[in-house]
Write a structure and sequence with these properties.
about 270 residues; about 85% helix; single chain; mainly alpha
Length: about 270
């Protein structure tokens, strides 16, 4: 009996106290603020009131956002960001897998053939672009040459022979850069006219002769006849009668009979005779 009594004393009693849980047993695992809020003290009461107020305020703000539609907007934004992040992750994974996969030999061959077919076209387009650029540059130079020659002729008519010579010389440098023999011959003719008006007959005769030789090589009889006529007039002004008649007769042999140039040269030849 005594042993039985001892066992009964050592055995824990079952009752209402066994069904209640002492919260103080969880205190070590709770944050300090949470433990303080659970304590039956004035401080705990204040913390509980603050927690309730914060929760109520949060619910009020969320309700307001939902009311004005911002809540849906925020949710939609979060969903969109999540979807975008997932898409980027999937794209990165696919890209990494593609980089790791060896390119099939057939695909490599097709790409090489396509490159071989495209290369001549690319080269052709490049040459076409270079040719177009060269033509545009030449066109600009020709316009400048014509402008300089016209300017020189106008200066010569005004009596400013020195400025006319400089203008024609600048045109001559450009025309030689272009490589147009016909334009070079006519620029030489213009320069010779300016030199003749300036009194430098020797240089003028040299430039007339050079222009006539170029035009003869081009078989340009009309312009060669004009140059020979100008040379004949220069000899006539210088008192070299025989040379003047020779050049004027040669000019008539190059010019068309019905042209005004032929008629002028014919009249000058009669005067010289």
């Amino acid at each position: 009996m005594q042993g039985q009594s001892a066992n009964q004393e050592n055995r824990p009693t079952r009752g209402r106290d066994d069904e209640t849980m002492d919260v103080t047993a969880f205190r070590p695992s709770f944050p300090e603020s949470a433990r303080a809020a659970l304590e039956p003290s004035p401080r705990g009461a204040r913390l509980r009131r603050r927690s309730l107020a914060g929760a109520g305020l949060s619910i009020l703000v969320l309700g307001f956002l939902v009311t004005v539609g911002l809540g849906r907007l925020v949710v939609a934004l979060v969903i969109a960001l999540a979807v975008a992040g997932g898409a980027l992750a999937v794209a990165g994974l696919i890209r990494r897998r593609r980089l790791r996969l060896p390119r099939p030999a057939a695909a490599r061959g097709a790409l090489e053939r396509a490159g071989g077919l495209a290369r001549p076209r690319i080269d052709g387009l490049k040459r076409l672009g270079d040719s177009a650029g060269k033509r545009a540059s030449e066109s600009r130079l020709r316009r400048k040459i014509n402008r300089l020659n016209a300017q020189g002729a106008e200066l010569r008519r005004r009596g400013d022979s020195s400025a006319a010579i400089e203008s024609h010389r600048a045109a001559l440098e450009l025309v030689r850069e272009v490589g147009d023999s016909s334009a070079e011959a006519m620029t030489l003719n213009n320069l010779a006219l300016a030199l003749g008006h300036a009194g430098d007959e020797h240089a003028a005769i040299e430039h007339f002769d050079e222009a006539a030789v170029i035009l003869r090589s081009l078989e340009d009889d009309h312009h060669e006849g004009q140059v020979l006529a100008n040379l004949g007039l220069l000899h006539g002004r210088g008192g070299r009668h025989e040379q003047a008649v020779y050049c004027l007769e040669a000019a008539l042999g190059k010019l068309d009979r019905g042209s005004r140039a032929f008629q002028r040269v014919e009249e000058q030849l009669r005067r010289a005779s």
